[in-house]
Each structure stands twice: as C-alpha cells, then as structure tokens.
Amino acid sequence: MKDGLRRIGRPLVAGASAARVLARSGVVRPVRPDRLIGMALSFGRWGASPAAAYAAGAAMDPGRLAVVDERESVTFLDIDRRSTAVAHALRERGVYAGDAVALLARNSAAFVVAQVAISKLGADVLYLNTGFAGPQLGDVLLSENATAVVADEEFLPLLDEVAPDLPRIVAWSDAATADSVATLGAETAPELDPPGRDGRHIILTSGTTGRPKGAARSAPGALSGINELVALLEAIPYRGNGTTVLAAPAFHAWGLANLMLAMGLRSTVVMRRRFDPAATLEFVERHKADTLAAVPVMVQRILDLPDDERHRYDTSSLRVVALSGSALAPALASRFLDEYGDVLYSLYGSTEVSYVSVAGPRDLREAPGCAGRVVGGVTVRLVDDDGADVPPGETGRIFAASGLVFDGYTSGEDKSRLDGLTSTGDVGRFDGDGRLYVEGRDDDMIVSGGENVFPAEVEDCLHRHESVRDVAVVGADDERFGQALVAHVVLRSGASATPDDLRAHVKAQLANYKVPREIVFHDELPRNETGKVLKRDLR
Predict the structure, then answer these.
(1) How confident is the model at residue 18 (pLDDT cuts 50, 70, 90)?
(2) How wide is the angle at C-alpha 371 spanned by C-alphas 466 and 273, nearest 5°?
(3) Which of 16, 189, 355, 513 could form a disulfide with 451 if both were Cys (CB 3.0 to 4.6 A apart)?
(4) pTM of the predicted protein model
C-alpha cells in the first residue's frame, strides 16, 4: 500500500495491446516494399527529427498533403525538397550542427519548412513567442546564443531594433523576397550530408511568473518514441493519415506536440496564422478534419459565437478536440460536450515534464474539473513541503516523469527534482477513482486568515455562474487577514451581475474564507499567446 501511495502511474502498453493501438490509429498499415525501404533509409539518415518524419512521408506517400495554410497546400515531398534548399541557405549564413536557430513565426507552411531545414543541419530550434516585446526578444536571443533567426516579415522591424546583425531568413511574407523561405525553397539544391547529431527543441516557458526560460528536449530514440506514441494514442484516439486543424500556436509546447504527432502519423495539418473562431470551424468543415488541437480559450471563443453562426458549419467529422496549455474550466468543458458531443480530451502537463494525464469525455462528464488519469508510462508523486508522500484526497506538490526527458534549462538551471521525477510547478490531489485534480500553481496559494486557498477552486465556482464568461482569482495584501481574494471577472455578452451577486454565489457553495473580498470587472483578461492568464498583471 505504501508503494501505491508513493508512486502513482500506469505501465506502458506493450506487445499485442500496443500493436492493437497502433493498428486502430492507422499507424500500422500495408506499405509497398520499396517505400518501406525508403522510410527506413530516411530514419537512418536523419535520426529522430522533423527531417526524418517528412523524408519518410515523402518516401511513403510523396503526393499526400502535409500542410495547408491560408495561401498554399504543400505535400510531404514539397517540404522535404524545400527544407533542403533552405538548409543550404542557413549554412551559407553560418549555421552548423549544435548551433541554435531562432524561429519567430506564426502557424504556416513556412514555419514547418524552416523547422525541418534547421533539423537537417543538426542545429537546435529555438521557438520564440510571437507575443514578445522588443526587450524580451533581445534578452532571449542573447541568452540562448542564437546564431541566426527565421522570422515572419511582420517581426523584422523588431529584430532591426534588438538584433540588427543577426543573420536572418524571412518565413511568411506578403510578397516573395530573395531571402524568404518561399523563394529559397523553390531552388533546386543537392542533398545534405547527415549532421551526425539530432537537433534539440528548445521551448520557452510561458514567462507568466518570471523571465521565459529555454527548456531543452532531445528527440526521443526510436524505441522510446514508439513507446510514447502508443501511450498517447491510448489516451487520445488520434488517427493516422487524417486531418488536424492546428489552432494552437506551433511555437508552444502543445501546438508543437500536435505538429510533431501529425508528422509521425502522416496526417495533414491545416493551420492559419491567427486564430479566428469562425474560420476554424470553416476549416473543419472544408477539410473534413477529424482532429482540432487548441487551447481552452479558443473553444471558449468558438462557443461565444452566435448560435446561428456556430451552427452554420458541419463539424460532424471531428473525432477529437484536444486541449492543453492552460486550465480547462469545468463549466466550459460541460458546455462544449453538450454542444459538440463526446470528442473533448484535455491533457495536463508542462513544458518540463511533457504530458502527465488526460481527461477524456467520460472523465469530463463524471468529474468536471479533473485533469484525468495518468498516461501510461508516466510516474507521479504528490508530496508535502517536507517531501513526504500524501495520501489520496490530500493536496501535494506534483512531481512526474516519463520517457520524454527534460534536459534542463539552457541557462544551466534546473527544475526541482525528486528521485528522478521533475516538478510540474503545480499542486494537486488524487480522488478515490484515480483521477488527478490540479488545484493551482504551488506558488499561487493564498493564505487568508490562516486558511490556505487555491485560486482554481474559487475560479471554478465562479465559472459556474451563468453570467460569468471568464475569471481569474489572485491574492491582495490585507491588514486584517494577511491576504484577501480578489476575483477578476469577465461577464458574458448581454449578461449582468453585481459583485454581491457573485459573492453570494461563492458563499452558497464554498467556505466563507474562500469568498472574494473584491470583484473587479473587465472586458477581457490579459492573456499570453497560448491563452494563459497573466496574473502578475492583475496583481
């Protein structure tokens, strides 16, 4: 029993069960012998990298669409060839294996071509947040020792200010220029020699609690990669050779994960540079997409569309709506399931530990607000401040580990570790059915009158009020109680509620010390590019 409390997790699916998962998803299917050889040679040449995924896709199904954006549709073969030409251009700009190349671009085919080109050189891809201000951008480029940058045209003036001498290639541009991905990729270029090194993916933390840090992750080895793929496919029923509308930004861990997954499953990725709720539904209908990958605030915006506009689009092809990146409010999950059926899957994880748990439709209906069940192959511990394990039902700091190893921050710093497990930075609890509940950041706890309050519980309660569209709860200094709760609220269009109404709603469901002292109304809450609320701005 002690071990059951100490390490909570599920074994990886293996053997015949793993084969069934792969067959069900369409990953395993008959392949012509010559194309199978071509795929094997691709992985032998490029290792476990985006370059290998697209080269293998070009060998197996060269004419299959790989990426569709607002402007063009490109095949697996197109991306393989274009990326070789862009890789040569990067080499001419001084990029070699082991260097870091910054990618500052919105979702587009150019983003993917650039990513693959960088990996063909064995260089590291440094994914930059498109919402960075100048000083933040300059700081990251300097601290991460970027050798070159591939950036959308709109960001060039910003780069001129903070890194004017950094070699660059233009990703998306309104008109083709000599140094753009479109122009360079159209050239015929000789094959590159294998770099002898798999480039890393350096994803920046969200920076909601401080300066963004580069979190490096190596590409998994072949066997490990299959294990992790099976585990994820068991938890979320993605299908191979399908179509994914990628609404989540590809520079963020969740968007990148879905892009990489689509590479491996040889699925078509449909994307647009800026999220638009109606356009997203139109993409689903037009391309008969089976998967939508987004962050919670995006499905909130879809549900906020007028009923007649939302119901104009046929979304019956959707089998999976996969969400991550920020907390999914229980009321939002329930409403989406009622509107679109049992297609919703919410993944909990972090940049450092990758995925931890998944809440599927049944979990979200039976236990709204849960983070679901631990994914196969993941180990989780919940511990108190002294590092002692806490029993089910009690709150502890969340530590987790899987086969997707976090290499540490590029600055040399590291996340808190415990017996080989890495802190997610959150606190949570397990219920009696083995579902994980995430109650908030471990540094977000508010101590009011000697009582510990995690904002998530109060936020969930306010989300259930019929007039509330969005909410974030923070602590404020209080002479009497030390800290007091302040709720920042966005009301639904046309709805009305007073601060007293909302406080009475909370008081009817939670303890008195969890009732906000103050309610502040906003038109919108400040969020970053991936949908996380910037609580530091509210404080």
Answers:
(1) low
(2) 75
(3) 513
(4) 0.84
